[in-house]
Amino acid sequence: MSALPSAKALIPFVSVENMMRLVHHLGIERVLSELTDTIEDDFRRWESFDKTSRIASHSRDGVIELMPTSDGEIYGFKYVNGHPKNMAAGLQTVTAFGLLADVATGYPVLLTEMTLLTALRTAATSAMAARHLAPEGTRVMAMIGNGAQAEFQALAMKAVLGITEIRLYDIDRRATEKTLRNLAGCGLALQACESAEQAIEGAGIITTCTADKQYATILTDNMIGSGVHINAIGGDCPGKTELHRDILLRADTFVEYPPQTRIEGEIQQMAPDYPVTELWKVVRGEKLGRRDARQITLFDSVGFAVEDFSALRYVRAALAGTDFFQQIDIIADPDDPRDLFGMLQRAAA
Ligand SMILES: NC(=O)c1ccc[n+]([C@@H]2O[C@H](COP(=O)([O-])OP(=O)(O)OC[C@H]3O[C@@H](n4cnc5c(N)ncnc54)[C@H](O)[C@@H]3O)[C@@H](O)[C@H]2O)c1
To answer: Which Pfam families does the UniProt entry name for this protein (predicted)?
Structure first.
């Protein structure tokens, strides 16, 4: 018996280290732009996906979720957590990993870290939405909440929309200082602000990306002038929102998958018949995105499985011809497919 696993047992595994090598090899702004296009391509073929709200296991401290989907040829899922209290213990709020499998055989074809990839895909999804919803010619974005996702959001908006200035605010000054340091020299004008009000002055896009397991009010109605686009990232769980509901009464709201967003998004504060527009219909040209210069648009982002699928298939394609992965033997592969026990038994010899 060979001590080495057969080729059928092996699948590519992308560690955090290799994901970082891949992103540096390609360049982060290129990755964000290409991911934006990949996600948009998948939103354009929305009907070909299996869609289900993510499976969430809630606890007092946070949530652990599984996010599956399939396009009939490839199946994918992501494991992800959301624990706002982790930060105080020196842990991250969000961590993730994911897998792609071949639908025809059920065999996995890729296993990868997705903590970095989630930040990239969330930023790319925001940029895709903003491409259809942000006011024409916007160059300034307010970034409220300067945690793990912040730089990714800023760079995606730069790469995809041509944003040139970011106005930063966080209740923790150290988070803003970290973001200023990380984005220095990347070609964005950066301004640290003393309040959310100051940050949104003159901004055409307002991104809220805070983490708090409660109904928070990061933005109130009186702060929001006409014509802005709100990219609301942090309200993504039952009982966890960022916007005062009066803003939703004035805004046109765009969502990923309504059954999931009605449970998890800002619109959990609204009646079940509160009108929303599905983003995929805007991408397909079936529904209007931004209608006029005065309209307030809101992307009520919660994160949907199709975006992770897009990110996974992007990484799989990008790995071709590189060594940014290891082969791991994740599938038991007995010589006779029915002789699984024999394989185990022979291994003792
Ligand atoms: N929609 C999506 O697809 C998606 C994807 C990933 C993460 N998220 C959510 O985005 C949020 C941010 O994630 P992260 O990984 O950057 O978290 P993080 O914990 O790294 O950062 C959150 C930041 O928000 C700040 N903050 C908290 N309350 C604030 C307030 N009232 N005003 C200003 N700043 C405040 C904190 O000080 C912290 O710096 C989380 O709620 C997370 O669940 C959403």
So the answer is: OCD_Mu_crystall (PF02423)
List Cα–Cα distances, 340 to 32, 181, 337, 344, in angstroms. 43, 54, 7, 7
In the block, tokens 């991104």 appear at: 207
Max Cα separation, the chain? Answer: 75
Distance CA 121, CA 146 (A): 17
Confidence of residue 3 (pLDDT cuts 50, 70, 90): low
Query: Angle at the Cα of 284 (from 125 to 119), degrees rounded to 5?
Result: 5
| 279 and 153 within one domain | yes
Check pLDDT > 70 for residue 317. yes
The protein residue whose alpha carbon is closest to atom 8 in ligand 1 is 234
Residue 193 in contact with ligand 1 by CB distance below 6 A: no
Q: How far apart are the two ends of the chain, measured CA to CA in Å?
A: 9
Ligand 1 pocket mutation pick from 213, 218, 233, 242 by most atoms within 8 angstroms of CB = 233
Annotated catalytic residue, options 37, 42, 221, 236: 236
User: DSSP letter at 165?
Assistant: E
pLDDT digits (tens, 9 = 90+) for 251-292: 999 999 999 999 999 999 999 999 999 999 999 999 999 999
Assess whether 315 and 341 both reside in one domain: yes
**90 shares a domain with 17:** yes
Residue nearest to atom 42 of ligand 1 (CA): 234
Query: Which of 207, 210, 244 best tests ligand 1's pocket when mutated (most atoms within 8 Å of CB)?
Result: 210
Is 246 in the active site? Answer: no
Look at ligand 1, atom 38, and give the residue with the nearest C-alpha.
147
Q: Is the pTM of this model over 0.85?
A: yes
| pLDDT value of residue 2 | 54
